[in-house]
Each structure stands twice: as structure tokens, then as C-alpha cells.
Amino acid sequence: MTEQVVPIQNKPLGAGETPQMLRYRELPDRWRRIMAVMTAVSIFLAINQIFNLGLFVGYVMLDSRYMYLITGVMLCMVFITFPASKHSPTHVPWYDIAIMVVIAIIFSYFAFFAERIVLEAWEYTAPPIGVWLAMVTWAVVMEAGRRAGGWPVFIIVAIFSLYPTFADLLPNVIAALRIPVTEAAIFHILGEESLFGIPMQVFATLVFGFLVFGITLQCTGGGPFFINLAFALLGHMRGGPAKVSIFSSGLMGSMSGGPISNVLTTGPLSIPAMIRTGFSREYAAGVEACASTGGVFMPPVMGATAFVMASFLNISYVTVAVAAIVPSVLYFFGLFMQIDAYAARKKLAGLPREELPRLSTVFKEGWYFIAVFVVLIWMLVVLQREAVAPFYATALLLVINQFTRHRLSMESFLQFIATLGRLLAELAGILAAIGLIIGGLAVTGIAGTIANDLVYLAGENVVVLLVMGALTSFILGIGMTVTAAYIFLAIVLVPALTNSGLDPLASHMFVMYWGMLSFITPPVALAAFAAASVAHVSPMRAGFEAMRLGAIIYFVPFFFVFNPALLLQGSVLENLQAFSTALIGVALVSAALQGYLIGIGDLGSGINGGLVRVLSGMAGLTLALPAGGLFGFSQLLLLGLAVIFLAMGLGMRQVYGIAASAKSATSSTLP
Hints:
This protein is mostly helical. It has helices at 29-50, 63-81, 94-112, 114-119, 128-149, 151-166, 181-190, 198-219, 222-234, 240-252, 259-276, 281-295, 304-313, 317-323, 325-346, 359-381, 389-401, 410-444, 446-457, 462-479, 482-492, 494-499, 504-516, 526-535, 539-549, 551-562, 572-594, 606-624, 635-655; strands spanning 596-597, 601-602.
């Protein structure tokens, strides 16, 4: 690897090369041009509405009319992008064209009569034509959700959107008043709490701009820049390629659509480099899977879920991003320390400096990516212009980029439009369908009943309720996207947590984090399986390695729920105290997991070494547990217990004569 040659190209992620891409059609040129036009129309509609331009009509468009227009366009894009089955991988069949014509007619009708729909409350009493068009739209949206999100999304959406029509037949604990299917249809499609509820509203007003920014960053060379930057900073250290993976994947999380696409972007470069320097194939795959999963909840750009969370809580996105800083830092710090301990124990060196890009050269060629991020953060934090900030950042990036060697040609610009259109279609299809879940629960009022029942089942024990919530979040995360699982749980589970006295922001973050864990936890560790395909290793071996490496994230959500100081929700002193002790605790847990403590050396193996590692891990968990909060433990008590556990562990190491030469006790290589 030289500073001139980095095997990452500016093209759609793994186009035609990975199993992930089998979900998308390989479109002929005519349909690519149609997709490009639809993408441009979507962007135009969003900019016109978000900036209140009033183009062509002289006034700002009614919100509901805007939602009908942009949703109709993007639903058409879903049926172009995603085939109904394996029988149309390279062409758009007649029935998909027919569905798009139906979408165009129905959504144009709804947009034309947008004022009447609102003023005459069609969501409760619509004319016959409105009822029938709503029924057809309901079916179309469910099919769009199936294509974009898969059968699990379709099944869950079908059950909950149809729930109002059979709610009276269920057991009393989840029963509700039955609603005719026609009334359910108009509520779903013509109201503001279902199809056009929080998920689609947030997508069309906030998330849209950040998706455009992320894809622009990627297609203008941001991916190679961040990866080269990581190699220049960390590639020479012990375990350097693995540290590069966590650094670059954390940055790439701002651009990718999720853990899997993150793996397929950075993995082909970082995994071979890790294997070359002595990491086992399963360990390399596990590192990449954990790093790519963590990248999605790394501020400043955390993906669609964070924006939906901010809308649910009625707070700014910046508040959510700030709260996510400490948990994400703890997660990546834990990964870093584990990698460093593993590399020290295995005596793994970094890459030769002559093979690495020079930091000065990397900055010279890509300084403007950092500058654009600074502008974005300034507009988010200082000006608090969340909706328009990514558009300004995108415009600045495109202007500067045209004066660099990464400037977009017509071919690369068309690739950019195609990639953006595909991502917009995928998220729109999923979020539109997930909105029907909210509608099904809202029209029956069952969400509050379920929350109370969960509290009752937990015996009003908050810890039991959290464990139930963690398991539910994990199971839903297996079959659904992170955003879809989070939205469902935010309606059903979070009220139960907040009713038990837990902090609302901490409760929302809790279910989001646990929904992410399915990506690195067998039996369905999708991010680990994607990394395993790059590393050419058994998916299950990669999954178990990822689960061990990501062990910190299984505990962190419980910690910040017990005491929101880890979400920076306390005083400055409380926040600093919780963060500092958590850092030391995470370092000890990482050492226990890898069997090597910096400054001490090898913690040993076998039964005796296992006991030493268990005691060291207990010391770390005790330190990481925040003082005060739910349990009210004093910091002095926790510190005393941690010292006792650690002293017992190190004492056992000394007694049993576990070999650890002074030479191996090296200092930390943290940059």
C-alpha cells in the first residue's frame, strides 16, 4: 500500500460483487436515466420545501402535499430498484411499471386535494374514492416495505397495520375496539400518524439532507481520504491495521447506510492488512464487524435513527448526538484497548512506514473533507440549522471538489445519482411501511396498555424490565433494520421504561443500542457474516469473535440507564467522574477479555489465568458502573470494590507464577 495506490474506488458499494448487491436490480441505461430524474425531482422537492423557496407556485407548499409528492416519487423508485423476485434482476417488468402508474395516479390525486383532505378530515370520514385509493395505497406501501426491508418487515407491518381490524378477537391483555378495514385504511393513508407519521416526516425534512451529504462525501473521495488518514496515523503501531479499521469505520459511519455497507467499504482494505500482520482471519473479521457496527452510532452524523429519536423526544438532534458521545467513545476505546492487548500478547507489529501514506500528503489532498465537517458541525451546534446544514455542507463540498483531482466527471456524477437514488428508495420504502405500525397502535390506543402490562409483568422491577427490553430489542434487531426496530420499540417499550422512572433519553438510547447488537451477535450476526465473506472464514467463527470484541457494548446501555451522567445529562463534575472511571473500567474489562494488561503483562491462561481474568473483569465492570443514579452506589464504595477485585486478581497471578516478563509489559500505544 503506497500513498498513490489505495484499493478503494469511488463506485457503489461492491456493485456486482457482493451478496448484498443481489437485492438490487442491475438497471439498463434507460431506467438509470429515469432513476436519475426521479432522484433529482426528490432533491428539488426537498430543497424547495426545507428552504421555503416557493418555486413556481409563489407560496410554500402545504406539508401534506409535499409529503404526498415526495413519497409518491420515492415509492416509484422502490419498484425500479428492488425486484419482486429473482426473475427480474436486470429489467423492470410490466407489473412494476403498472404499480408505478398506479402510485403516480393515486399520489397525484391526494396531492391535488391536499387542502380538502386536511380541512374535511378525510382520515376519519373520506368519500368513497378516497377510501378505495387508500386501500390500494396500503397494499402498495406494504409491498414496498417487503422489497426494501425483506419479509420480516412485511410480516411485522402486516400484523400491526391490520391489528385494528381484529383487535377485539385477541386476549384481553392486548385486545382493543375493532375498527372496520376501510376506516383503518383512511387513517393509515390520509392521516398524520401512520404512513406520514414521525418516520416519514423526519425522513423528508431532516434525514434527507444528511443522506445527500453522506453519499456526496463518499462519491467525491471521502472514503479513501478517511482510510488513508487512519493508515497514516495508526498503521505503523502494533496491531496497526486493526486500529485503522476502528478509526476509519468510525469515520465512515457518517457516510454509509448501515453496518453491512460499512463493512463492505472498509473491510476489503483493512481485513487483508490485518491478516498480513498476523491477526487470525476470524479476529480480523470480528474487528471489522464491531468497528463498522459502532460507526453507525458515532456522532456527529448517526443515521436516520438519531433524527427519529430527536423527533420522538421533541429535542434537537444535537442533544441526541452529544448524549451519544460518551457511549460511542467507550465502545471504540474498548475495541482499541482489546486490539492493543491482543497485539502485545501476540507480538504483532504494524505495517512498515514506507508502505503507508504520509500524513502531510493525505491532508494536502483531502483537507477540505475536514473543513466541510467543521462547517457542518458549526451549523448544527452553533446555528442550530439542522434541516439546512447538510445541504450547505454538500454544496460547499461539491464546489471545492471540482477544483481537485477527485472532481466529478459525467460518469462519476451519474454513479453518484444512482447510489443516492438507491439509498433514498431503500429508506423510504422501509420507513413508509414502518409508519403503518405506528398507525395500527395509535388508532387503537394499545401502546399505553402494552407499556403498563410490561411494567406489571416485570413486577415493577426496573432491572427485570431492562433485561426484557434488551432481549426484545435484540430479537427485533435480527429481522429488521436498526431504525425500524427502534421505532417499534420507541412506541411499545420505551413508555414502560419511562413509566418506571428512567430517563427518557437514556431509555430511547438503550433500545437503539440493543437493536444494533444483533449485527455482531450470533446466530444472525449480519455485519460479522459480511466481514467473514471478505476474510474467507467461517461466518459463525467471525460472529463469536465479534461478540467477544464488542462485549463492552452489551454493558454500556445498562450503565447509562442506571446513571444518565454517561449521556452527559448530569453536572460537569458528575459527567467527568462517570466518564473517567468508565474509561479505566473499560480498559480493565478489555484486558480481561484479551488476557493482557498494559503495564503488567500476560494475565495467563488455563484455570488459574481464567480466575485472574475474571477478577480483573469484575474490577473493570465495578469501576465502569456509574455512581449514584438508579442504585445510589457511592463512588468510594465502587472504587474500593474495584481495588479489592483487582488486587485479588494480580495477587493470584503472582502466587501462581503466571509468566509475564518485564519485557512484555509495554506502555500503551494510544495516539
